[in-house]
Amino acid sequence: MILPEATLGVLGGGQLGRMFTAAARSMGYKVIILDPDPMSPAAALANEHLQNEYTDIDALNYLATQCAAVTTEFENVPIDALRYLESRCPVRPGSTAVEIAQDRIREKTFIRVCGLETAAFCPIRNEQELTAALSAVRLPAILKTATLGYDGKGQRIISEPSQARVAFDELGNVPCVLEERVDLQMELSVLLARNSQGEVAVYPLAENHHVNGILDTSIVPARTSADIVRRATNMARTLA
Questions:
Q1: C-alpha to C-alpha distance for 12 and 22, rounded to whole angstroms
Q2: d(CA 126, CA 173)
Q3: pTM of the prediction?
Q4: What tens digit of pLDDT does each residue of 125-165 get?
Q5: DSSP letters spanning 210-222
Q6: How far, in Å, CA of 59 to CA of 201, rounded?
Q7: Cα–Cα distance between 238 and 240 in angstroms, integer?
């Protein structure tokens, strides 16, 4: 058990890190933020702010010696930094989980390996794979960069094959996925936590609404059937 008055470390000091820090300090924990940004929102509430790069060895060693556990507030933290910390102190989520979440190709493939469904998709790393994807994925579809895309960034809607080739160039010919566009009745989020004994706590499901590809409103609990709640919760447990 990591009890209050212990020190927790966070890689990243944005708005999610700020919310984490506020909650942790209200419970009596100390928080150290590692973020190169001098104006880090989370650092304003933390006990300490290490204004270093995420791969700075001295900063990572300091976190490992001072913190009972370390987490990350976003998925694009350098994996080598998490692996380095992981060999010295508890890191949650672990580097393997974060590495999967960083890359849409790895992520969607992993979801299918877990026996869960995704929209039809194909990985694209070159022109040959783009050609193959256009034959395998029904249009309209969405071309998404495999990494660093969020809030609608790094995405292009594809209605005909010629648009895909232009979009692939516009996105810099970086690894992408071509994903079938699906008409959604509702988007749900399932937030859960699991301890080292395997016990799982599931929070009430959230119903999400977006504006211009960016989350605008979440309604909790989601206005959906008990069967959908059960199915979504079971899927999240399986994935976790």
A1: 14
A2: 7
A3: 0.85
A4: 999 999 999 999 999 999 999 998 776 778 899 999 999 99
A5: EETTEEEEEESS-
A6: 33
A7: 6
